[in-house]
Hints:
There is one protein chain. With 124 residues, the chain is an alpha+beta fold. It has helices at residues 3-7, 16-22, 112-122; strands at 10-14, 33-39, 42-47, 50-57, 63-70, 74-80, 88-95, 102-107. It contains three helices and eight strands, in the order H-E-H-E-E-E-E-E-E-E-H. Strands 5-4-3-2-1-8-7-6 form an eight-stranded mixed sheet, sandwiched between helices. Strand 7 (88-95) and strand 8 form a beta hairpin. The N and C termini lie far apart (32 Å).
Amino acid sequence: MGLLSGILGNASQIEPAEAQKDLAQIFAPGERVERSYQLVRDLFLFTDKRLILVNKQGITATKVEYHSIPYRAITHFSIETAGHFDLEAELNIWISGTAAPIQVQFNKRVSVYEVQAVLATYIK
Length: 124
């Protein structure tokens, strides 16, 4: 991920196998990472069972929050593609019981269509 992209708040794709190995302790037996994205230090993981948001806190990032969202809790989502002068695409995900969506911005190197396809595959 480019430094400028990270500073601007854009997520970049990382290898699912790398995320699977680095965070092995949080996965259920047989659970696999389908897509993974990094936003500065934080991670946004799509597994075959759930969406996992990893929030690394503090200067040293030794305190970490793992937010697990089962796909069945996602009520709907939207994507906004990047334009000619707009540098990022946006994904909004609404969770049952919450009014405000989770918002993630992706740089142009990440296909927001692929991201929404993963959600569309797992949301029933």
